[in-house]
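To assess whether ligand presence alters the predicted conformation, the chain was also submitted together with magnesium ion. Input:
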Amino acid sequence: MSMVDDARLDSQASDADVLLRVEGIKVHFPIKRGIFFDKTIGHVYAVDGVDLQIRRGETYGLVGESGCGKSTLGRAILNLEHPTEGHVRFDGVDIASLKGEDLRRKRQDLQMVFQDPLSSLDPRQSVESILVEGMKAHGIAKDAKEARPRLRELLQAVGLPIQALSKYPHEFSGGQRQRIGIARALSVNPKLIVADEPVSALDVSVQAQVINLLADLQEEFGLTYLVIAHDLAVVRHISDRIGVMYLGAIAEEAPAAELYETPLHPYTRALLSAVPIPDPVVEDTREQILLTGDLPSPSAPPAGCRFHTRCPWRQPTRCEDERPALRVVEIDGVTAEHKVACHWAEQIHSGELQPHAVEPVAVDPSALSGNVEPVAIDASPLGPDGRRTP
Ligand SMILES: Nc1ncnc2c1ncn2[C@@H]1O[C@H](COP(=O)(O)OP(=O)(O)OP(=O)(O)O)[C@@H](O)[C@H]1O
Ligand code: SF4
Ligand SMILES: [Mg+2]
């Protein structure tokens, strides 16, 4: 076999390995003004150029501050938000190109678990009817009776008693409700589950139980996960790889352990320095980086590197006018799976560049949201399938 054939087979093998391929995704929301909101006066650049791949059976953790675009990216992946640019390929198929029956069938493969289980579960429906709804819609069972054996299995899998079927969401605790939300996602045999802040509404004491449950279910049902969180500590143990998002783009991506051991992006270093370590010696000597300044508005993202207004390593060249690409670096001990969007990652890692006090950088005030009232944001409630009800 020729070398060309070898290379082609290699790339086919890796293609078969990848369940989800996000290519150059942008989601820009128009900001409209005027009595009938007919004039577009700017955009919220919620997601602004994201590439990522998730392999079959993998858990990809996506972290970042509130408003950086995590949920919008998750919704774009599920085809609940129409991307301004870019493609989402699921199992090799561009999901934006699907219509009618094909789209309905593909939806079964992609399910979501929401942050707030109470508002995402219909309070007027019993657990049984919540779980049977999707199974009926996707032809897995034609009625509750036919669904019974599967319901038993599902409840057992998420650790709830069979009596739960006749109860209503308000009769459960937060952690139990999230188990119902997970059972609902599982009920249609999905391949990918996007879990958007699945534990942030729960007591700290039950967060670990729900995370462990997700991990167990992954093994049992061969699931692939995208887990979204604003806290690095939450995704640490469940994730194979982690992407750190800042203002609509991925700042750094790495295998989970490597990201914690060798964070390369100044933003990741700052995030990690804020996670407490339960060892007083380490706690006293470790790096503490305080980020000054607020997260800039996604309607007026800084030029060049988006992080330059808050970066303690900002340099006089490149940082303010050249947007860094997410790239592989040549640093000893750093694998090719570790990518970072910083012009100076090597010099920062070696210590050649040292952090300095951050002078606040002015952002173009005309582009800030203060000027753009009233803003038309679609705030209608999300239905159980994550779509907005008109
Ligand atoms: N439908 C919409 N119309 C206009 N702007 C929107 C819309 N949805 C989200 N945004 C804006 O896009 C940006 C990213 O929002 P998104 O909800 O994706 O962030 P997030 O990272 O999930 O934040 P959080 O951690 O608070 O959930 C925010 O500035 C938000 O206000
Ligand atoms: S490119 Fe410059 S501003 Fe951006 S993270 Fe690197 S050093 Fe900081
Ligand atoms: Mg969100």
